[in-house]
Design goal:
The structure is a single chain. The chain folds into three domains: 47 residues, Helicase, Ruva Protein, domain 3; 100 residues, Tetrahydropterin Synthase, Chain A (2-Layer Sandwich), CATH 3.30.479.20; 40 residues. The protein is 52% helix and 18% strand. It contains eight helices and seven strands, in the order αααββααααββαβββ. Strands 1-2-5 form a three-stranded antiparallel beta sheet. A two-stranded antiparallel sheet has the order 3-4. The protein has a two-stranded antiparallel ribbon with strand order 6-7. Strand 6 and strand 7 form a beta hairpin. The radius of gyration is 22 Å and the shape is globular.
């Protein structure tokens, strides 16, 4: 089957995949554009996950100040080369992440960063509640894990739903950027500042 050059070009523009890969995908799916696009997206994400193991020492420091000046964010976003760091897509990603942090106020980067003390505290609370509700022992573990996942989705940046698209997590949009830019990308660190906060906690004056 002869695939049109126009269709290959359009698929390449929308997926960022190589010309030959676009052509093969269209041939494989009998010129079904949507199926070919879906296949290339999945292939790109799989490749991105492999790239996530590579070193990323370049990048940029992004700063964001929320209108009104009461909230500010500093974010270090890393990639593999200064070339990618200078691209509009990478810089837009850094800005979006900083904006998200300003709104969502994550406390940790990822699950592994949450202290064992806090994890155990939540687990004991959820287990006690499940037992008090008369839940059988064989389902309590599943209940606790499900509630812990909700906690992580609230406090861990990579697990949070993206403020601009709640169908995706922050990790999802980073993986998509890795697939598009063909380099590993990772958040190294971030800090969120808010007027009245002390050491990351909301400061409230003692009125007594």
């Amino acid at each position: 089957m002869a695939v049109s050059a126009e269709m290959v070009k359009k698929l390449r523009e929308e997926t960022g995949a190589a010309v030959l890969d676009c052509k093969k995908a269209l041939e494989q799916y009998n010129e079904n554009f949507d199926e070919a696009k879906k296949y290339l997206a999945e292939k790109g994400l799989a490749t991105a996950r492999k790239k996530s193991e590579r070193e990323a020492r370049e990048g940029l420091i992004e700063t964001y100040g929320h209108p009104g000046g009461r909230v500010g964010v500093m974010l270090e976003l890393n990639c593999e080369t200064d070339f990618v760091a200078s691209t509009d897509q990478f810089q837009e990603l850094a800005h979006d992440l900083a904006l998200h942090i300003a709104f969502a106020n994550p406390q940790y980067l990822d699950v592994a960063d949450v202290s064992e003390e806090i994890v155990n505290e939540h687990r004991k609370e959820f287990e006690s509640e499940a037992k008090a509700q008369g839940k059988p022992d064989n389902v309590i573990d599943r209940i606790v894990e499900g509630r812990m996942n909700k906690v992580y989705a609230e406090i861990c940046l990579l697990q949070q739903s993206f403020v601009k698209d709640d169908e995706k997590t922050i990790n999802d949009i980073i993986v998509e950027a890795i697939a598009a830019l063909k380099e590993n990308i990772r958040v190294n660190r971030f800090a969120r500042f808010e007027i009245g906060d002390i050491a990351g906690q909301t400061g409230e004056e003692d009125n007594e």
